[in-house]
Amino acid sequence: MADKKKRRRPEPNSDDETQLPFKKSLKPDSLILKSLEDLTNSLRSTTSSSSSSKTLTLADLSLSSSCREVTDLTLSSVQSSIESLILRLAHSILSGNGFSFDVPSRSAVNQLYVPELDRIVLKDKTSLRPYANISTVRKSTVTTRILQLIHQLCIKNIHVTKRDLFYTDVKLFQDQTQSDSVLDDVSCMLGCTRSSLNVVAAEKGVVVGRLIFSDNGDMIDCTKMGMGGKAIPPNIDRVGDMQSDALFILLVEKDAAYMRLAEDRFYNRFPCIIVTAKGQPDVATRLFLRKMKMELKLPVLALVDSDPYGLKILSVYGCGSKNMSYDSANLTTPDIKWLGIRPSDLDKYKIPEQCRLPMTEQDIKTGKDLLEEDFVKKNPGWVEELTLMVKTKQKAEIQALSSFGFQYLSEVYLPLKLQQKDWL
Amino acid sequence: MADKKKRRRPEPNSDDETQLPFKKSLKPDSLILKSLEDLTNSLRSTTSSSSSSKTLTLADLSLSSSCREVTDLTLSSVQSSIESLILRLAHSILSGNGFSFDVPSRSAVNQLYVPELDRIVLKDKTSLRPYANISTVRKSTVTTRILQLIHQLCIKNIHVTKRDLFYTDVKLFQDQTQSDSVLDDVSCMLGCTRSSLNVVAAEKGVVVGRLIFSDNGDMIDCTKMGMGGKAIPPNIDRVGDMQSDALFILLVEKDAAYMRLAEDRFYNRFPCIIVTAKGQPDVATRLFLRKMKMELKLPVLALVDSDPYGLKILSVYGCGSKNMSYDSANLTTPDIKWLGIRPSDLDKYKIPEQCRLPMTEQDIKTGKDLLEEDFVKKNPGWVEELTLMVKTKQKAEIQALSSFGFQYLSEVYLPLKLQQKDWL
């Protein structure tokens, strides 16, 4: 297209600019920035500067015996632990006892939310998976095969997807859910993260803004990634050298909002890093967010829809998902703030009725279930907001702000939120 | 993770390397590269160097009167054509005739495949959408509202998603399919592409390899995008300055295969640009691919699953989708070659039985339907392959090659395909 001229922020007296609600309450950016700097500095001073991950561990709570967690292992140690495991099996076979795997249970009953850690962890229940048993012979065969494939990956030091893994032996695995679930079993058995196994999920997230990092040896400057942004790498172990002059990380649920902020280069007006997984958080984005938080020590502010799923998504970033609880230590980002859109914002920001949607029965049920979750209970502000949502039976997406003009989000709503430090 | 050492191609005498089928038939890369260079040069010499888009047009076929196509318009011309349209409506209202829109029909009966163009185009049938008619009053109101919103976008010169558009008036639009479909109507009415309206689809595609381009003013070097690659920008009008020393474009259906090639940096061994939309082609990726093909004049080789949907996806890139046929000239990339995985490859490359999947009834039906499609018929090679697929009732995904080792795709299959110029 010929029209190449860059967009400018609209002139003060341009059309709908004058009647934008709350535009008047905005202080000059300089003042807002000052208060944000104080916030970031206080956060940095509180968190120990020596180690980036000086957070409570299971050991600190003397839970390490009763709970199970995995850690990042180097490829070589994964390789050797597979080899010693197989050696043990061989011995057991030679001594005439056949062989069986001792597999940690990942069932719901084996899950535990630890308030002190503010995340879900896996308890220590395990179950035997003997080869010489009609009910488990298939699964123990699959387990052996997965171990062999992972061993190959270690030797070659390459990454593959769960799908690749499945396709190396379709006849045995039958469908991918089987190889996927055994893959998680293997992570637990070896006590290492899935990324340590060099099996990665397909990437989904993108990042843009005041961040420089290395992806597989290439230095990436996320202020020079245009509107598209940088695709978050699937393999966190090749990500490093993070540098940033940002004052906060803006975690966005939807890519529409991400796009708006990227095009308006919001991160130039308020130095920040903008990241989104485009809906449900994927492992790569969760690992990337945690790494940013830990290494850069920045506050994380979440911009999600005002519905139960928005809060659910926030919680997955914050304290993990049940089916990967064994890895919650590496996948979760502590202390994420709920910036918006919050149920109380709907009236506060006069979101027009037509942009609010009635909650379905399912929505309301999900909302009520969330109110029972510990990670919500421990935050009175969240309980209050969620209660309001369930009471009013109204929800709204981030895009609802578009009813005040497409740029209301980046020009009024977010700046005002930052100015008022209005997060929970 | 501590283990940071880069992966090397496995040593010749490493484990499963020796028994890789066809590894022996591989010539030295230098010879393969030479023949690829000849190919690219011949392509460049045939396509006129003056204009990049010297392809047949509807006018050349004197179809411009009976068929309708949209073109890229500058924001200012979109704005003025909206204003003159509204002016005409006002006149008609003042002269007591009320108003109605003359909307091009996008129904299947109004679609036409033009072999000379090798793409689907829209015929010239239109239907009236009067305001003063109970059956059309809603839709004409929606049309007016959409026109007004697009007019705003023109003035501000910003981009929004279809979702944003929907949310500016939920009560009127009711659900997004309504605002989406009227948006397409408006494109046809104004005779411009949807991207000319500054309404963009959420980005999905990624690109990596021997390409440098500018995204919203930032220069992007896709050889320095690590394993994650660069997210393809949602707004093609901010993309430009494409430079490349690649010999071909590798269009990949799935992101798993994309990841394998990105990690192995396949584009360093065989200079190419690797692009994927991660499944169904989205508009942004289709526009990006066409722009690359037109400006860089490179052959496009497609790596898709060996099933009817793989070919279907190839066809969407190649000759467009029915529901956006009015924009096929801008969305389609001419002369895409079917590299693989082709039905004949299954036996040729000895894909193990367990990695082939039986086609479902639906698969077979889709396959047979495709055989009736003109874009397949015009390519005897494709007909032959598709017939074989339907006959053997077998399909296979790209990942099926993983059964020979995770890197068989990048180390043997693709190099051999290139060496043998084995595409259709």
Write structural notes for this entry.
- 2 copies of one chain form a homodimer.
- Chain A is of the alpha/beta class.
- Chain A contains 16 helices and 18 strands.
- Chain A has helices at 29-46, 75-94, 137-156, 162-167, 170-173, 176-190, 255-263, 266-269, 283-296, 308-319, 328-331, 343-348, 361-372, 374-377, 380-392, 408-419, and strands at residues 67-68, 100-104, 111-114, 119-123, 126-130, 160-161, 199-200, 206-209, 212-215, 218-221, 230-231, 239-243, 248-252, 272-276, 300-303, 336-340, 357-358, 394-395.
- Chain A has a 6-stranded mixed beta sheet with strand order 11-8-14-13-15-16. Chain A has a 3-stranded antiparallel beta sheet with strand order 1-4-3, with no helix packed on it. The first copy, chain A, has a 3-stranded antiparallel beta sheet with strand order 10-9-12, with helices on one face.
- In chain A, α3 crosses α6 (176-190).
- The longest helix of chain A is centred in the first third of the chain and has 20 residues, at 75-94.
- The model of chain A is unreliable at 1-18 and 48-53 (pLDDT under 50).
- At the A-B interface, α3, β6, α4, α5 and β10 of A face α3, β6, α4, α5 and β10 of B.
What is the number of helical segments of chain A per DSSP (H or I, 4+ residues)? 16
End-to-end Cα distance of chain A: 44 Å
Oligomer description: homodimer
Mean pLDDT of chain A: 86
Give the percentage of residues in beta strands of chain A.
15-25%
Strand line-up of the largest beta sheet of chain A = 11-8-14-13-15-16
What overall geometry of chain A do the principal axes of the alpha carbons give? Answer: globular
| DSSP helix fraction of chain A | 40-55%
Q: What is the largest interface, and how many residues per chain? A: A-B, 84 and 84 residues
**Can you summarize the main beta sheet of chain A?**
6 strands, mixed
- The total of beta strands of chain A comes to 18
